[in-house]
Design a protein that fits this description.
4 helices, disordered C terminus
Length: about 120
């Protein structure tokens, strides 16, 4: 039974990854009728930022390093751009990682990170 559950999980992960790439390749359609709920922006204190960095799991840390290195390279003239799709269930740390990245950019590069959320309408044909 355990083998079947593991196989089901592998198939589900493969499907999710394939679906993620399909979404990335589709043109984005913005629905002007959908408004984003504005949440107040909060900057982390130095202590909060350091504690959050230590709380990252291995996958989050690897992605954090990869993205911050890519940003640094782009600011130094590298024309390579990254297309990264982060997925996971509720409570897996996606927003936690995004907030750390946002704070890292704001702290290190003096840039204000703009949060952009688009409504994506998928057309099936």
């Amino acid at each position: 039974m355990c083998q079947y559950r593991e196989r089901d999980q592998q198939l589900e992960n493969a499907f999710n990854q394939a679906h993620a790439f399909e979404i990335l390749e589709q043109p984005e359609i913005i629905n002007p009728e959908v408004e984003e709920e504005e949440l107040p922006e909060r900057e982390m204190s130095n202590d909060q930022f350091q504690r959050a960095q230590h709380a990252m799991n291995v996958d989050q840390r690897q992605l954090f390093i990869h993205i911050t290195e890519s940003i640094k390279n782009q600011l130094n003239g590298d024309i390579k751009r990254e297309k990264i799709f982060v997925t996971g269930g509720a409570g897996t740390g996606k927003t936690f990682l995004f907030n750390l990245l946002k704070n890292q950019v704001n702290r290190c590069y003096g840039k204000s990170v703009v949060k952009l959320v688009l409504s994506l309408e998928l057309q099936h044909g």
